[in-house]
Amino acid sequence: MKGILLLAAIAISAPAFANICEVDLIDLRSNRLISRIRADDFGDNCREGMKSCRFEIRQRGLHGRADCVRVEGRFPDRDNRPLPDYDPIPRPNPRPLPDYDQRPIPSSAARRLINNGETVIYANRYFRVLGVSFDGRFALQSMDGYNTISNNIPREQLSVTNGCNLGICVSETTIQTTSARYARVVALSFNDQFVTQSMDGYNVLSSNVDRRQIAETKGCVSSSYAQVCVGNQVIDQFNRYMTVVGVQLDGRVVLRSTDGYNVLSANIDPTRLVITR
């Protein structure tokens, strides 16, 4: 009888040994392995492993700075033979997006149909749409006073001047992290990039601005211990009082000096800040 029970237990437990999955917690900045989580698969695409990994992200305050990647096709067998060595620098393709609750999702607004008479931006200039050809190319007229006609322009080269995409809307005031300057979003590009306009009085247009180069002037970055929000006063790593004025997509922040010069500093790691109020 004991032998029968033992065989039954082995038969029941064997699938569990054969269906253990692994999920890697990956640092998005360095693409390095932070930790590995093992869980039963249960035939549900490693749902429990992914849940445990996302819980780790919340517990460690890694929102926007880490992601969970399932290790495909590498399961321990029933003999518990060791798994082959794992590359410590996994390079998933495509690169995983930040996995946090407010992750911006691409919308169709940037790729919608464009109507005659609509204002668009093409080659860093404002144009009015005159019409569209049978094969989907556009005729445009410049709005700079010269009324220049441009014809045979593909839709992919036109940016629409209304709507929202990736959590950013046209007319929104943002901070461009590459220049550490305020910029207003004026158009959505077909490839999920943006056109911005400088707010320094020169009104210079900049095309092909990636979402990662745009900091929102609202919102917060949270960890297990504290929350840094736009408007907070902090002390930076150089013991200077600064004000948080922007939140970046990767979880870093933009600071403004409080010494009267109002200098902006982008790409600041919030874990190196002390919140005073």
Descriptive notes:
The protein has 277 residues and is mainly β. The chain is 11% helix and 38% strand. The chain has helices at residues 2-18, 47-60, and strands spanning 20-27, 33-40, 66-71, 119-122, 125-132, 137-142, 149-154, 159-160, 164-165, 168-169, 173-176, 181-188, 194-198, 205-209, 214-216, 220-222, 227-229, 233-235, 241-247, 253-257, 264-268, 274-275. The strands form six sheets. It has a five-stranded antiparallel β-sheet with strand order 7-6-5-4-8, with no helix packed on it. Strand 18 (233-235) and strand 19 (241-247) form a beta hairpin. It is flat, with a radius of gyration of 25 Å. It starts with a helix and ends with a strand. 24% of the residues are buried. The model is unreliable at 12-18 and 73-102 (pLDDT under 50).
Question: What's this, in brief?
Answer:
This protein is mainly beta and 277 residues long. The protein has helices at 2-18, 47-60, and strands at residues 20-27, 33-40, 66-71, 119-122, 125-132, 137-142, 149-154, 159-160, 164-165, 168-169, 173-176, 181-188, 194-198, 205-209, 214-216, 220-222, 227-229, 233-235, 241-247, 253-257, 264-268, 274-275. The strands form six sheets. It has a five-stranded antiparallel β-sheet, with no helix packed on it. A five-stranded antiparallel β-sheet has the order 14-13-12-11-15, with no helix packed on it.
